[in-house]
Amino acid sequence: MAEEPHPSSLFSGYPSAPGTYDELLEPGGHLRLPFRRALAPLASTSPDAITRWQGLAERALLNQGVTFSVYADSRGTEKIFPFCLIPRLVSAEDFSHVERGLEQRVRALGMFLDDVYGEQRILAEDPLLRDLVLGAKHHLPMLRGLRPPGGVRIHVAGIDLVRGPDGVFRVLEDNLRTPSGVSYVLENRIVSKRVLPKVFEEARVHPVEHYPARLSEVLRSVSPAPHDDTHAVVLTPGPYNSAYFEHSFLARTMGLELVEPADLYVDDDRVFLRTTRGPRRVHVIYRRIDDAFLDPEAFRPDSLLGVRGLVRAYAKGNIALANALGNGVADDKAVYAFVPQMIRFYLAEEPILAQVHTFVCARDEDLRYVRDHLDRLVVKSVDEAGGYGMLMGPTASAAERDAFRRRIEADPRRFIAQERLELSTCPTRDSATGALVPRRVDLRPYVLTSPAGPWVLPGGLSRVALVPGSYVVNSSQGGGSKDTWVLKARDSGRNDP
Amino acid sequence: MIARVADHCFWLGRYLERVDCTARVLHVTLHLSLDAELGPRQCWLPVVIVSGEREAFFAKHGEEAAADGELVQSYMTWDEQNSVSLVRSIAAARDNARSIREVVSLEVWETLNELYLWSQSPAARDEYATNRYAFYRTIRRAIELCRGLLQSTMLHDDPLDFLSLGLLLERAGHSARIVDVHHHALSKNEARLEVVETGVWLSILRSCSGKEPFMKRHQGRVTGPAVAAFLILEPLFPRSVRHAVAEAHARLLSIRPAGARDLPGERTLARLGALDAWLASQTPETILPIHDLATYVVSETAGICEEIGRELLGYGGGSAVS
């Protein structure tokens, strides 16, 4: 096929960001080979049409109430998660690599948790890891020796991936407690299909709509009661939680009841729901509340959120919690540095997915390096999420770096550092000018695990930094999202599940 | 179902009905004030009284203000301090639905959310300013759409029953209050047709969407007592007190069957059943003085709502489960 430029293409004149990998375009401005056929209809669309469609998409999201609440605002103001209509594509080949890598990683992380709350074999091998794990904020020693119902701990994982200038996907962060965002994956898909039906149809994209059904199956698969008698619920802190939309979305699409802590109580180490017809037994809780707020009896006596006695019921094996208690010790940002070691230790395999080199400040030589190279490193606090509590060394002022250096020296265990990654970009519609501009993206695929093993949703949340040059894609800090189109392999049938 | 969820369903039903009733009364009164030979105060004061806002309105704007149709409309439409204004009721309906999004169907939620977003937008202010009828009609149509979607897109089980229960009890109370406010006019049994009073009677019927059904029953002969009896007792008119109470009773029976002694709700069922039976035993001939009748119905429906809260919705500590 002739290598023709696209003079009239939507993508012509796209100002690629030097030194970064672009998800859709090659350095010369051509669409990447695996996407040429799929994106041809989009490329021949006029910018005016895109602007019109973008308006339709935003209207649809607002009317559907696809919103998140803003924490800083006590009135619980809702905002739509900014959405860019231009999709982010992943080739069949790339995704199959990611899929195998994620299955391997989640399997090893599950075995690590079993080990930490069991024999602690890996800790005996590595004193530093031992100190990090036993001192981690999310480590719950009281769970030692307790096997969760069904033997599964990481029912739902959201693993953040980024792509550097070399085009290689790397794991940036594991989210093994209550990873959020999957509702936007499904909602973004609905909007894409509604607004870009022809483009979507041509592209041959893996569906994502079966996620709630799979999740519901996973929940039943770990129930202490027989499959058909299982009563599973979704537990939310309530409508003012920032992820409330997602909680209600998942409950609705799984056909499960959405409950708040006060709707549940524990009697005789069994969990019941208060209903208009009296108490009803509950067997599985898909909980979207952190460990610390689940049970005031076990964790924080001051918490108004929890269900008193829930941990006792859990210890008796009468209730399955998804995700399991205590998972935070495995997605700790310092423990992250040891995941390749875990994969080798538990599976005797080499890691399939690369990850970002990480300096663990608890390690003396790493601490020395970090102290002297703050201007080129990104420093993160191990127990804060959402892009908070971090230092972007290259853009911070000297005073900010000094202040952060003192924080690190005061408590090295709490910090890790990484080289700043040139995150890949994806063509994104600038809402002011309507032009396509390069904006940095990450990718959060979702992995569900039942007793039969892990399964990866062929898709994921592509978060995009909407501010020019920004590296922070978190929704709490002005990030937006895109629909992620994982293309089907060339030879697979149209009705591939 | 979860008592908290039942509570949201019940109140969603009540607020939906309240929005509809308020919009309809404003719509009809706007009409009445143009073509009946009534003073503005006679037209607009009843609107304030039916909504239960007499004291608050007088305190805020003075007694004379009840003659100011524009002021009454803006108070009943936009006033954020007025807990029964249209914007407040729409927001309250939407808040209840938002708390139970997994329970109401997506179609119902979207319709209600769109109504809410519109009511908060400049487009709504614009329509209010330039085309008042269209403004009220937009709101009424959105509520009609919600009601239709509730029936056609949701399982007909407990959540919908609680929603309908709230909606029907709100309706019964509203129809009773309308009759009560106008009981002087409705008590006059004039043999000859007075233009002014016929106008009021017809407008009372219209404010309950009852003009055409009434005409079908009475072949065009309008009298005050006949209108009152129709709005209270007509078993086949969906907005009559009797019909709304009988339907509410049926919904409650499916939530809490009569023989189910182990389920909560016994007192509520007894009281609602008694009101239903009492209404069914009345005839236009034996009917109490209109004012007494309407007052009785208003206080009974309010009492039944409190009982539901105590027995079924988990209010005041004595929750639905023991």
Looking at this protein, list some descriptive labels.
heterodimer, A: 497 residues, alpha+beta, Dna Ligase, domain 1, 5-stranded mixed beta sheet, 4-stranded parallel beta sheet, 13 helices, 23 strands, B: 322 residues, mainly alpha, 2 domains, globular
General description of the model:
- The complex is a heterodimer of chains A (497) and B (322).
- Chain A is an alpha+beta fold and 497 residues long.
- Among the domains of chain A are: 279 residues, no CATH class; 64 residues, Dna Ligase, domain 1.
- Chain A has 13 helices and 23 strands.
- In chain A, the strands form seven sheets. In chain A, strands 13-5-4-20-21 form a five-stranded mixed beta sheet, sandwiched between helices.
- In chain A, helix 2 crosses helix 6, helix 3 crosses helix 11 and helix 6 packs across helix 7.
- The longest helix of chain A has 25 residues.
- Chain A is globular, with a radius of gyration of 23 Å.
- Chain A starts with 35 loop residues before the first helix and ends in an 11-residue tail after the last strand.
- The N terminus of chain A is likely disordered.
- By secondary structure, chain B is mainly alpha-helical.
- Chain B has two domains: 153 residues, no CATH class; 168 residues, no CATH class.
- Chain B contains 16 helices and no strands.
- In chain B, helix 1 runs antiparallel to helix 5, helix 1 packs antiparallel against helix 8 and helix 1 packs parallel to helix 9.
- The longest helix of chain B is centred in the first third of the chain and has 33 residues.
- Chain B is globular and about 60 Å long.
- The two termini of chain B are 15 Å apart.
- The chains are: A alpha+beta (497), B mainly alpha (322).
- Chains A and B meet through helix 9, strand 7 and strand 9 of A and helix 1, helix 5 and helix 6 of B.
